[in-house]
Design brief:
Elements: H1 4-32, H2 36-62, H3 82-109, H4 113-146, H5 151-159
Helix pairs in contact: 1-2, 1-3, 2-5, 3-4, 4-5
Amino acid sequence: MLSKFHQALQDQVRNEFTASQQYVALAVWFDGQDLPRLAAHFYRQALEERNHAMMIVQYLLDNDIQATIPGTPEVRNTFKDPAELIELALSQERAVTEEVIGLAKTARDEDDYKGEQFMQWFLREQVEEVAQMTTLLNVVRRAEGSAGNLFDVENYLARESVGDSGDEPGAPRAAGGRV
């Protein structure tokens, strides 16, 4: 029988894969609007969320717990304006932050010190993710408000280092390796 923490990790695998799929949908929308930097940003975000799921899978495997790979619910594909996509991404990152906090609390409540330590990286990661999406939303709103020109956002993304920059020291291993 799985502990409450290990069951919650199984649930989080679904959440991470769902987040990945939602980011693919956002990337495809931006691609369809001929906004390649925004599209690339969200394609990278999709891979990052997939990697998070696989990090959890690897943790489960390393602890001799059968990992299950779930299906994902439908994701949203229809949007009216770019800010709406970034608002969805920010909302998603805030929800994931709450999920990760819940996981860390559950591990602590169950005296699962390995699990609590494992969640520390994810807690740090979520601070970065929420801050990044908040900044991107502010930049998109400014661009839309000033002249409605999203090419300013494209230039911002080309100029600034935003998002996952590759392997991070201390990041958990991902089953099958990071993509």
